[in-house]
Design a protein that fits this description.
By secondary structure, this protein is an all-alpha fold. It has one domain. Helix content is 79%, strand content 0%. Helix 3 crosses helix 6. The radius of gyration is 16 Å and the shape is elongated.
């Protein structure tokens, strides 16, 4: 249960935070309407990509090509053991898939 909490809590908090900021940016009336629609369509397109289809390849991408362990060196400075590198990669993947749905939900809330 501890590993599940270590994975779920940061991913949920980060997805909700970034999704709410993105949704607020999409509700500001300063944008042209066509640009808002285009950005929203691109974000919503992320909802339709099946999470299970790209979970393993995207996690491998973070570890092999993007060198996520180097980019997130501040996480290791907090004292997180090296055994949890895979969980950090899964959290980043889950955040990437959580942002579109959080953006859609928060935008709907902000528009009402």
């Amino acid at each position: 249960m501890g590993n599940s909490m270590l994975y779920a809590v940061p991913a949920t908090v980060i997805s909700a935070f970034v999704g709410s900021i993105t949704a607020y940016g999409l509700t500001i009336p300063d944008w042209k309407q066509s640009y808002k629609a285009l950005v929203l369509a691109l974000i919503i397109a992320g909802i339709f990509i099946p999470y299970q289809a790209v979970l393993v390849p995207l996690t491998q991408f973070w570890s092999q090509w993007a060198q996520l362990t180097d980019l997130l060196s501040f996480v290791w400075a907090l004292g997180v053991p090296n055994d949890y590198v895979g969980i950090v990669e899964l959290v980043v993947t889950h955040v990437a898939y959580g942002i579109p749905i959080c953006t859609l939900l928060f935008r709907t809330y902000y528009k009402t």
